[in-house]
Predict the 3D structure of the following.
Amino acid sequence: MTFEELNLSQEIMNAIKRIGFIKPTPIQKSCIPEIKKGRDIVGQSLTGSGKTAAFGFPILEKIKPGCGIQTLILAPTRELAVQVKDHLISFSSFTKINITAVYGGVSLVPQFSAVKRADIVVATPGRMLDHINRRTINLTNVHTLVIDEADKMFEMGFIEDVTEIIKCLPEKRQTLLFSATISSEVRNLIKRYLKDPLFIKEEIHVNQSLLKQVYYNVVQNEKFSLLVNLLKKKTPGLAIVFCGTRRQVDIITKNLKIQGINAMAVHGGLSQNRRSHAVDSLKRENIQVLVATDVAARGLDINNISHIYNYDSPKTPDEYTHRIGRTARAGKSGEAVTLVSERDHANFGHVMSDRNLNIRKGEMPEFERVRFVLDEQRRDRGGFRQNQDRNGFRHQRSNFNRGRFQRR
Ligand code: AMP
């Protein structure tokens, strides 16, 4: 199927040409005609599938510039809100449509006038509710609502805000909900707020033939050394290193810098400016490595990521798939590497229970041991003892056997 067959407006077709999309992705093929018809949609797909254009193209076609906010898009994180806004701006470059993003962590004041001029607002739920409560936003002309990454809204505890916002919107509207997974909570939300929705499920856009997935069994106190070695010797492009907690992100970032690796941290505890700066630095290739928590990296669309490293194992197959979806994009090859130590076994065992994932045991390279510094105090005391992990546990070589995660 071609974009011509989707009967898109001339303005959108011009933008598609300018951007260089050749043909629609599967989610675009299935969603665009249905959204044009005005149906409510539940799209089960991930960032990377082309879902922003799947809802963005038909939404843009329905906007009358200068007639107030007609579409509200709710996104769980500031990064995703900005990314969606940027994509929509590029899709609408041949129109006069005004698109703005509102999110917390920055001053409200410039947003007051921006939302007055906007035809489309992309918002995080908390800040949106703030605007509603202050009566600084007029939602009476909204005819389309998009709830992006609904599952993440629940995980992040935003769902009450989302339902509060929905109650402030006109009843007569089209609602589009996107979610990587449809939990019972998401299903309840769909039941309450969508009208006879069409469910469209797209398989994850990770090209398995281009994506190599490996794991290494490594003892905890050698994990950082292995990561440094892999980053220095086996990572030709950009990398994202996923950690389980904000604190871990900070510690790993600091240690990578000590090892001369150009890294920045991104997690929910950092200011909006610092998070944006880190993501932009990776996009511009000013740094090689972004160290991130799941939430902060959710939905990031960055080209040229050759490697994903799971420094801490993801907890579920879904979380794993979300992480690896950041590489092997658009015909490029990539590698997803999970470093599995004692403390990851329970989580990684859960990931491996998904038989659709094709993760193989990697052959352990020779690697040099490097220092790992927990914090300034410890560094002053001579750094970290190599036979202790960061909690001070002494380790002997792990006796988790090699075949533990191999499938029979
Ligand atoms: P999304 O899932 O919306 O975050 O999109 C992921 C990436 O795919 C973005 O970089 C888009 O610009 C790109 N993309 C979206 N639609 C297409 C298409 N039809 N052909 C090629 N790339 C696309």
Notes: Residues 21, 24-25, 28, 47-53, 301, 330 surround adenosine monophosphate (CB under 6 Å). Confidence is low (pLDDT under 50) at residues 377-408.
